[in-house]
Design the sequence.
C-alpha cells in the first residue's frame, strides 16, 4: 500500500539523518555526542508525529470518503443554484463571483440553462444533472452500500449511451436537444457511474482503513513500551 510505504520511508530517512548529519559527527567529546543524540531524538519524534498524523488522516478519509464525495458534488451543483437566488436578494457581488468561477467550468449558454426567477443558473442543465445526480446517487448509495454490488460494465455502457448520443448529435448539429433530455440523460449517466464506481471505492477504502488501523495500533504499542 502507498500509505503504508510512505511512513516507513520517512523513518528510514530519519535514521540516516540521525547518523549521517555533519553536525552530529562522533569524536567531538561526550557533550557533543549527547547533543547529537538529543537532536536525533527530536528529529525522530517529529517524524513519528508526521507519520501518525498522516495515518490518522488516512484513517479518517477511509471512514468518511462517501461524505467527502457527496459534499463536494453537492457544493459543485448547489452553488450554481445559489447564484440566481443571490441576484434576486440583491447580493450581486457574491452572485457574480459564482458566475465568474463557473464560467471557466461550463459554457453557461442561456438556451441550455435553467432560470430561477429572472436569473440564470450558473451551470448548464446537463452538468447540473450530472453533478447533482452524483450527489443524490451518493446519498442513496449510503443507504444501501452494504447490499449493493457494482453495476456490470456492459450495463453501465448502455445506461450512459443516451447521454453520449444526445450530446454528440447536438454537437454535430444533427438535432437540437431539449432540457428534459439533457436532464434525464445526465441523471441516468451519473447514477449509473456511481453504481459502477462506488462499490469498488468502498472496498478499496475498507482495505486502506484496515491497514491504517493496524499501523496506528503498532505505533501505540511501540509508544507504550518502556525504553
Sequence:
Amino acid at each position: 500500500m502507498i500509505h503504508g510505504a510512505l511512513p516507513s520511508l520517512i523513518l528510514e530517512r530519519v535514521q540516516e539523518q540521525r547518523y549521517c548529519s555533519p553536525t552530529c559527527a562522533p569524536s567531538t567529546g561526550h557533550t557533543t555526542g549527547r547533543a547529537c543524540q538529543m537532536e536525533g531524538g527530536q528529529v525522530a519524534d517529529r517524524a513519528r508525529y508526521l507519520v501518525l498524523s498522516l495515518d490518522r488522516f488516512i484513517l479518517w478519509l477511509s471512514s468518511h470518503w462517501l461524505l467527502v464525495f457527496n459534499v463536494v458534488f453537492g457544493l459543485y451543483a448547489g452553488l450554481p443554484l445559489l447564484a440566481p437566488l443571490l441576484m434576486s436578494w440583491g447580493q450581486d457581488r457574491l452572485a457574480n463571483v459564482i458566475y465568474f468561477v463557473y464560467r471557466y467550468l461550463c459554457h453557461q449558454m442561456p438556451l441550455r440553462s435553467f432560470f430561477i426567477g429572472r436569473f440564470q443558473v450558473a451551470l448548464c442543465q446537463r452538468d447540473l444533472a450530472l453533478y447533482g445526480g452524483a450527489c443524490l446517487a451518493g446519498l442513496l448509495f449510503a443507504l444501501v452500500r452494504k447490499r449493493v454490488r457494482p453495476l456490470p460494465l456492459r450495463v453501465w455502457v448502455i445506461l450512459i449511451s443516451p447521454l453520449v448520443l444526445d450530446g454528440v448529435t447536438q454537437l454535430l448539429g444533427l438535432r437540437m436537444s431539449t432540457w428534459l433530455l439533457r436532464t434525464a440523460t445526465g441523471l441516468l449517466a451519473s447514477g449509473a457511474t456511481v453504481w459502477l464506481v462506488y462499490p469498488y471505492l468502498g472496498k478499496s477504502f475498507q482495505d486502506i482503513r484496515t491497514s491504517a488501523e493496524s499501523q496506528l495500533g503498532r505505533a501505540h504499542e511501540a509508544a507504550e513500551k518502556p525504553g
User: Anything to note?
Assistant: The CA atoms of residues 14 and 81 lie 50 Å apart. The radius of gyration is 26 Å.
